[in-house]
Amino acid sequence: MRILHGALRAGSGLRHILPALAILGGAHAADYYVSPGGQDTDPGTESSPWQTIAKASATMAAGDTVHIMKGAYRECVKPAHSGLPGQPITYTAYPGHSAVIDGTGVALAKRGGILGLVDIGNKKHIRISGLTVVNTMEGNAAGIFAAGCEDLILENNRIANTGASGILTYQCSKVLIDGNRVQSVCVRGGQESISLMHTDSFEVRSNSVHSTPPSLAGKGGGVYRKEGIDAKDGSSRGRIFGNHVHHTSLGIYVDARGSARDIEISGNVIHDLFSSFEEPGAQGTGNGIVIASETAGIIENVRIFNNLIYNTHFGIRLAGYGTPGHPVMTNVTVIHNTLYRTRRGIELSNRNATGIVIRNNLCCRCTDFDLGIFRNSWGDQARMVLDDPTLRVESNLLDVPAGAGRPWERDNVYGTAGFVAPEAGDFRLRSDSAARDRGAAAGGAPPFDIIGNPRPVGAAPDIGAYEFAEPPRP
Predict the structure, then answer these.
(1) CB proximity list for 124: less than 8 A, separation 6 or greater
(2) Which residues pair with 182 in a beta bridge?
(3) Backbone angles phi, psi at 223, to 5 degrees
(4) 111 pairs with which residues across the strands?
(5) What is the tens place of the pLDDT at every residue in 25-75?
(6) 331's torsion region: left (phi>0), alpha (psi -120 to 50) or beta?
(7) Which run of H or of E encompasses 173?
(8) In this predicted model, what pLDDT tens digit does every residue of 394-442 receive, in sequence order?
(9) Closest by alpha carbon to 318, among 293, 282, 347?
(10) pLDDT-based confidence at 362, cuts 50/70/90?
(11) C-alpha span between 448 and 333 (Å, rounded)
């Protein structure tokens, strides 16, 4: 499957929200080493390492790094001290080694009802890199749990077989979650693979999130639906980009539950999502990208662009459900996304939404509808675009016949998508695609497509996440 994300350069000013995270060049005060064969009475050097990560945690100060050598460590990783700006305290796997933090039989600390095998509480300037975190046993036990932290980097870790979320942040700020593999998590409950709660100024990028199917919920026979990447409870000022999410119940979810502002969702590949027990290979029953508030909330300034979504139920949904429902939603832009084999392509079903732009998206083989603009959450009360001068639905490529009685389809384009090889996961455009040079040039089209090609190449932008590029000459 072809997945590249050179288009990450196309982000808005949000990519500058984490300046402190980029400063990793400060000199180390010390380097320490841990190995299962070491002794905590040794000096913690490469030739005479400590045995436990706990010994390193108690010792390290700002700028220090512990290099964790190969083996399984059955202990909770709990930083005892904070770093300083440009001098994080770093926990990292020794180069070329597999350092496994194994929760089998490990008693975990509980804070606020959540447990964490890697447990970071009220610390600043901490970096966790290259570790394998597995086997939390309790239903409320996450792999990596951070609460009350600032300037936190979680990168290139592998998390699997956790009772709750693989990675969970709560009341944190300046968070980078980068290049992690999160799979087969939430095995003892619902929750999400990567969850940000009350988190401000974040980037979730280049992570692989998959293989978290629904499960039965106890004796009642209900279903636990397990989601991919969630930013909720007022998480704001963040980017979710370049991630690959598949075989979960929901791909990416912004749930305000308060106030969710200034969020960018771009360059993600989301596919084969199942909210019940259908066999993979059928058209999915899960949701690709959802923006909503399950309680009262305000959602504003959200940009969704350059995403590829296929084999789902909903592709992109701006929803009105929740209690009391239909939260205030304003200035949400959905542009240059590609949707294939969804039942419902792009849906706006929030009657309190204003300033919504749905432009230059490519919807192909959507069985219920390509575009749905409704007054309610059930999709049975059509909303006339002309009723709301702040709503723009235009220049989307639809492969359904024109004039089907849908009032929002007037200003769109009809034709064949012309993908290179969609069944093989290649959604680049062929030269004969009806999407070529048919997009609207106005409205802030991102200057790069999902794989880094400049946009536009021709007279106008191509519709969808991909800009056509001539194949290289032999």
Answers:
(1) 82, 83, 84, 149, 150, 151
(2) 159, 209
(3) -120, 130
(4) 114
(5) 445 489 999 999 999 999 999 999 999 999 999 999 999 999 999 999 999
(6) left
(7) strand 173-178
(8) 999 998 655 555 556 678 888 999 999 999 999 999 999 999 999 998 7
(9) 347
(10) very high
(11) 17
Q: What is the pLDDT of residue 473?
A: 63
| CA torsion through residues 271, 277, 283, 285, sign | negative
Burial of 382 (0-12, 13-18, 19+ CB in 10 A): middle
Q: Evaluate whether 106 touches 76 at the Cβ level (below 8 Å).
A: yes
Other CB atoms within 10 Å distance of the CB of residue 281: 8
Name residue 250's beta-bridge partners: 227, 287
Question: What pLDDT digit, counting tens, does each position of 129-153 carry?
Answer: 999 999 998 889 999 999 999 999 9
Ordered DSSP codes for 282-303? BPP-SEEEEEE-SSS-EEEEEE
Q: Which helix H or strand E contains 56, and what residues bound it?
A: helix 53-59
Determine phi and psi for 103, rounding to 5 degrees.
Answer: -85, 5
Rounded-to-10 torsion of CA 333, 334, 336, 339: 170
Whether 294 contacts 321, CB under 8 Å: yes
Q: Look at residue 125 in the predicted model and tell me its pLDDT.
A: 98
- C-alpha count within 13 angstroms, C-beta hemisphere, residue 31: 11
DSSP 55: H
Beta bridge partners of 118: 77, 144
286-298 exposure pattern, b = at least 16 Cβ within 10 A, e = fewer:
bbbbbbbbbeebb
Side chain identity at 319, as an amino acid letter?
A
**Ramachandran angles phi, psi of 240, nearest 5°:** -125, 105
Q: Which CATH class is domain 6-429?
A: mainly beta
Q: Name the E strands within 198-307.
A: 200-205, 208-210, 215-217, 222-224, 227-232, 236-241, 244-246, 250-255, 259-266, 269-271, 287-292, 298-305
Sign of CA dihedral 438, 240, 245, 225: negative
Contacts 24+ apart (CB under 8 A), 427-430: 427/308, 427/310, 427/338, 427/340, 427/464, 427/465, 427/466, 428/2, 428/466, 428/468, 428/469, 429/462, 429/464, 429/466, 429/467, 429/468, 430/468
Q: Measured between alpha carbons, how far is residue 345 from residues 187, 298, 363, 396 in Å?
A: 30, 24, 6, 11
